[in-house]
Structures are given as C-alpha cells and as structure tokens.
Description:
six-stranded antiparallel sheet, Arc Repressor Mutant, subunit A, Jelly Rolls
Amino acid sequence: MEVLEAESADDWESVVSGFFVPLQCAGFEDTFRARMEHTVVDDRFSVSRVTECGLIAEHTGRLARRAETDDVHISLQLSSRGSVSQDGRSAAIVPGSVILYATNRPYRLDYSWPDQRHLILQMSRTSLDVPARMLETTLARLAVPHGRRAVAVHNLFSYVESIVPDSRADAAHVTRDLARTMIRASFGEGAAVPRTSGGLRHAVQEHLRANAHDPGLDMDQVARRHLVSRRRLYQAFEQVGQSPASFLRQQRLQAAARMLRDPVERRTIEQIGYASGFDDATTFTRAFRRGYGVTPREWRADC
C-alpha cells in the first residue's frame, strides 16, 4: 500500500492523475489537505481510500482523448456530498451512495463540501465480465439505485475492507465477482448470487453475521436464500477448512462472550444464550465450554 498526501490542489492533481486518469483539480479550502491510501491488487484492479477537503476534479474532453484505459471507477461515498456528471447526466452524492463512471470519457466530480471520504475501486471494464449493454446502462445511471442492491453493495465493500496483502491473487478474483453481482442486483436479477466460491462464502458469512441471533437459522434455509444446494454451500467453506454451521456457531459464541464481558449487561446467562441465537441453555453452555474452555458463568465471573 502506498500512502500519498497533498497540501494544495495542484499537488493533489499530480497525485490523482498519476494513480487514476489525468484530472484538473481546483481546491476550495484555505487549508487544503488530501490523502490517499492506494493498493494495487492486480494489473486490472486497485483500491484507494481517499480523504479530501473540498475540491472539484474534472477529466476534460481533451484529457479523455489522451486516456489509454477502459477502466471503470466504483466509488462508495463514506462521508461525501456533491455530484458527479458524465455524458450530460448528473447524480447527487450523499453518504452511502455508490457511483460508477467510465474513465475513458469526460466526467466532473464536485466534491466542494469539506470532509470528503470515499473508497474507490478502479477496475478494467473487460475484467468485470458484465454484458456490455448492462454495464453501459449502469454507467448511464451513474448512481447505483437503492433497493435490491443494498445487500450486494454491503458484500462488495465489506469484502474490499477485509483484503490483506497475502490474499491479493484471490482477492481480485472475488472482488470482481462481487462487483459483477452488485451490478446484476441493481437490475433485479433474482438474488444475483456470486459465482466464485470466495464470493459465495463472503456473502454467506455476512448473512450469518447479520442473522446469528436467530435460533431458527439453519443451513438449508441459508442455501435456499443464496440459490445454491447445501452441498455447494459446504464446498465454498471447505476451502478455508470450516463449515458454515461452525462459522455460525463461532459468531454466536463471540456475541455471547461480548455480552458476558459487558459490565452494564444485566441479562441472565440463559437470556444471553437466547439473545446470541442458542435455542436452549444446555446447548449454549456446552458450546461455550467447548469454545472457550470455561462455562458462561465462569467467563462472566472472570471479568
């Protein structure tokens, strides 16, 4: 990962032009500051976490004609406000927005509000393997619509946040899969299930984390939700030496351990077991002892 900082819009223009495409930048803050944490995952995919304090960046027609790239930017707005414009269309930017735009055509980013923070994925258009018409329609929208895409967006960006250097080869493959899934989900294509084992595993893990408190959650239900067979579900987890059921149990135990350690938590041990997703106190105690080597009561007493 490279970390780059700038204290003027001119310096920032040089930074972003070197890592993205040539841009013209104008700053609006007297004390301009900008920072980028940039990671090249492979030759067709990079991730950048960007912080800026008020500017407008423009990829002009002249600059676009000189560009030798088919890259697409997928940008998650963390605290940003403003707008993006391309091909005569504009979309408002608010925290949580997901913006897609092409880098081989002119565009304008109005980030003139202070405290702009966004996560930018730069991907080769061809590497996304999305039907050309679908991708062009997505780019024409600029902003990924809300609704069905929410889970797919969460899965993509939560995975990107988890990327570590020693998993880069697989990370690029899985990230493209999750980006493709997000685009398809924005068109309402069923559940738009990831194709790769890594993508499916991450989607399921996020679902299990969010629903671990539900004692009725079972693997047949999880498989149906993700439109795969139970066998395919377990195969996706075999690659990391785990099963989806053991991952779910781990999430429940971690939730229980946190509650038992919480000094302001007043619920009984049995109530904490239910709140963590266990359907009876005996199962909870047995699983907790197996996972932590002590009973829930001993764990709480040791706080």
